[in-house]
Design goal:
Blueprint (H helix, E strand, L loop, with lengths): L5 H18 L6 E6 L2 H6 L1 H14 L6 E6 L11 E4 L6 E3 L4 H13 L8 E3 L9
Parallel strand pairs: 1-2
Antiparallel strand pairs: 1-3, 3-4, 4-5
Amino acid sequence: MAKMTLEELRNLRDTKKNDLRKRDAEGKEIQVIVGMGTCGIAAGAKVTLDAFINALDANKLVDSVLVRQTGCMGLCHSEPTVEVIVPGMPAVIYGKVDGAVAEEIVKKHIIGKALLDNHILDRPAKDIVNA
């Protein structure tokens, strides 16, 4: 095994600290839950999960948004599926979420507080949303 320099060790430590910070649930009210059942993974849910993490990093939202994985949501025909929970908004399940849609969800739903109607599977009742 090759020896690491002190600088390489420090960089590795910082990377691992950042990775652990992303997993910390404390103080995070916004949640992104990616369906990672077999059907989801086969449809590209790993790419979707990575896209969310990268988009949250790019928008400096790692400390306020928790990204979690779950099993099958029962919506296999629309995989990859993602549930987004934002305080003050209804919980929504989006379907057919690829990398581009994940970035759009971060920008429009999480930051802009607006629903993406063209990808909603579990639409909130009309009396909950003022559309």
